[in-house]
Design a protein that fits this description.
Blueprint: H1 2-13, H2 21-24, E1 25-28, E2 44-50, H3 51-54, H4 63-78, E3 82-88, E4 100-104, E5 107-113, E6 119-124, E7 130-135, H5 148-163, E8 171-174, H6 189-206, E9 210-212, E10 216-217, H7 222-231, E11 240-244, H8 250-258, E12 265-272, H9 279-296, E13 303-308, E14 311-312, E15 326-327, E16 330-331, H10 333-345, E17 351-352, E18 357-359, E19 372-377, E20 381-389, E21 396-401, E22 404-406, E23 409-414, E24 419-421, E25 424-427, E26 430-436, E27 445-453, E28 456-457
Parallel strand pairs: 1-2, 1-13, 2-3, 3-8, 8-9, 10-11, 11-12, 12-13, 14-15
Antiparallel strand pairs: 4-5, 5-6, 6-7, 15-16, 17-19, 18-21, 19-20, 20-27, 21-26, 22-28, 23-24, 23-27, 25-26
Helix pairs in contact: 5-6, 9-10
């Protein structure tokens, strides 16, 4: 009797503590003027606030650009959404226009300025092949060393404005995907750390803000990322370790590496941007469960994911078609998948629910190419996510919930929200539910959810 009472209290307590789906979920380049998903699944929106917009010429500050961004922040706050500003990129007057060379993984670049303001860029590949082309430069070129103070002044002005009320912005991201292979930083990483990250982080911290690393891209490895932080003694300049389009195991690697430094929050501020229909259902609950079991119940800011991007036109010729959460004014398959999760996991806090067994055996894990299962507890409901590879898909997955005595309603819910009633058999070993897989869709991985409502404990 005591065991039943304690378990029921644990389920009820899920509504009072922990992390919500909105704490965890965000997007990029969104607009709260479009109503979909903001009230249920998305609590964050990530936007650039460009240096060249604020200061297109040195000393020529455009206050209206900052005011416009402030209005975006206020519109989001009115809907309970937080904005993550990205402090970026170079203005033409701040580029490094000197002769320079840098190398990465066997490729070497040599840049020589021309009399016409352009640059001769000579690239030597690892096989020794050399080619030279004329380039015009751009905002992704390295910041000139002599413009470092100007960069810090831009950061100070933006952060001072957005830290103040009524804006109250807390987190700031420095640049985006700085890496020789990303297309967002045409230079070496030491220059990025010394000229961009470290000065900006110092200013943000001085002003009481929190620093999000500028989205380490998947073209670089996690060990390379960690080595860069070690080399520049940058751990104490960061509140959030951030990656883009990385394998889910990156969360484990970053979490382990941060532990000797007192721990850090771990975010992925760009993920998705692919047409495969299992992108959201196969990743979102895996990372959400991991977050809940590694610190998310104590700190809602510990872990989050931002789907890139919020919207694209509903036009097959458009950039981002079928990659974003919205296609025109309608939810895409990705958006429908996120809406399904929001309907299942609600607006309240969620706790991990580990008393789950399946046949075949499915275990919680961060390997998106492997079968898996995650359980979640709400006030009167248990939700179990099941991920099974399409190759060799069984006719049924048998779900066992040994700590539950009964349920008022049980249903299989597809990734996009279609419900099929199921029967829960109760015996001395708890509840047993046969979950059919027929009719479920997915590219390489099939995901569905089992919603067990009106539960009572054994």
């Amino acid at each position: 009797m005591i065991l039943r009472f304690m378990l029921l209290l644990g389920l009820l307590a899920a509504g009072a503590h922990g992390m919500t789906l909105r704490d965890f979920g965000g997007t990029c380049q969104g607009s709260v003027d479009r109503p979909l998903l903001w009230d249920t699944a998305l609590g964050w929106d990530r936007h650039d606030i460009g240096w060249s917009d604020c200061e297109p010429q040195r000393g020529e500050w455009h206050a209206d650009a900052l005011e416009h961004f402030g209005q975006r922040v206020l519109a989001a706050r009115a809907k309970g959404v937080r904005i993550l500003p990205v402090l970026c990129y170079n203005a033409p007057w701040s580029w490094d226009r000197g002769e320079r060379s840098f190398a990465y993984e066997g490729t070497r670049w040599h840049i020589v300025p021309r009399a016409d303001g352009k640059f001769d860029v000579t690239t030597t590949d690892r096989d020794g092949q050399t080619r030279t082309e004329v380039q015009s430069g751009g905002g992704m070129w390295p910041l000139a060393a002599e413009r470092q103070a100007d960069w810090a002044a831009y950061v100070r002005r933006v952060v001072t404005f957005l830290r103040s009320e009524p804006y109250g912005v807390e987190y700031f991201q420095i640049w985006n995907e700085a890496h020789p292979r990303s297309g967002f930083w045409f230079g070496d990483l030491d220059s990025y750390m010394q000229r961009v990250h470290l000065p900006a982080a110092k200013v943000i911290r001085e002003l009481g803000g929190k620093v999000v690393y500028g989205g380490w891209p998947c073209c670089g490895s996690v060990p390379e990322y960690l080595a860069l932080l070690d080399k520049h003694q940058a751990w104490d300049t960061l509140d959030v370790l951030d990656v883009h389009y990385s394998g889910l195991q990156a969360f484990e690697q970053l979490h382990a590496a941060a532990r000797p430094h007192g721990g850090r929050s771990i975010w992925q501020t760009e993920v998705g941007f692919a047409p495969n229909i299992d992108s959201v259902p196969n990743t979102w609950t895996r990372v959400f469960y991991w977050a809940l079991t590694h610190g998310g119940q104590q700190s809602p800011d510990f872990c989050r994911q931002f789907h890139f991007a919020y919207w694209s036109p509903n036009d097959p010729k458009a950039y981002g078609y079928r990659h974003c959460l919205l296609s025109g004014d309608q939810l895409s398959v990705h958006g429908q998948s996120l809406a399904t999760l929001a309907a299942l996991l609600g607006s309240g806090a969620v706790r991990p629910y580990a008393d789950v067994a399946t046949q075949p055996a499915l275990l919680a894990n961060l390997d998106g190419a492997s079968d898996g299962a995650e359980g979640f507890a709400l006030a009167d409901r248990v939700v179990v996510a099941l991920h099974v590879r399409r190759a060799g898909l069984p006719e049924h997955v048998v779900l066992r919930l040994p700590k539950l005595a009964s349920a008022r309603q049980v249903a299989r819910v597809s990734a996009t929200g279609e419900r099929q009633p199921l029967v829960a058999l109760a015996d001395a070993d708890g509840l047993t539910i046969a979950v059919p897989t027929a009719g479920l869709s997915g590219d390489s991985m099939v995901t569905c959810y089992v919603s067990v409502e009106g539960v009572s404990a054994r």
